Fold this protein.
Amino acid sequence: MKKIVFFILLLLCFKGHSQSKSMFSKDPIINLENFQKQRVYFGYYLGFNSFDFKIDYKTVGPDIQVKKSTGFNVGVVADLKLQEYINLRFEPGLYYTKRTLNYPNFTREIDAVRDVNSTYIHFPLLLKFSSLRTGNIRPYLVGGLSTTLNLSGNSKSIDDNVQQKFRVKPWSTSYELGFGIDFFSEYFIFSPSIRGCFSLKDELIRDNDPNSPWTSNIESLKSRAVFINFTFH
């Protein structure tokens, strides 16, 4: 995967430039010089994610271990120019991920392991703070709030962990912070970025039994994630 990402970055960063003057040369050809003067423009993104859980406990004891995996993202971008260096961005997308919880106090795997498959519809509203453009490169910072709908959280299920159903709330709210770089090619803008996402609210639905060994000692369970997105305008 790392090799594929590296190849895509190399290919797209240099595509559309002449052989004599590259993007990083001292005197580059200026691509899409007037593109960001537009009031509104659109795009799409593809990417990867890695979700985790931040778990706070009521009493001290062995921690629940969270095994992460790499998921994928796909979505669209709507960008509104507020000022020369500030843009308002709406980036709704579909995010798929998987986490595995390992509980320490069980001997049977069927009791100790809970797979949490999540399909999210993600609605981030972000502010993008861009630096001065240098040739065909423009770094930026991005941050804001997001709300997320979990389509596979088992929130409507009457079964719980006794029946191997780990349940989380359907909606969550988060804040996001990150940075990226706009690369201006001859025909489009390629924008890789990395962003952290941190849930603000407890997402856990407790088991029906108030003394459940799976949920009774959990004070709060919040998602946190890293997104790597490749955006095209």
About this structure: The longest strand covers residues 40-57. The CA atoms of residues 163 and 207 lie 10 Å apart.
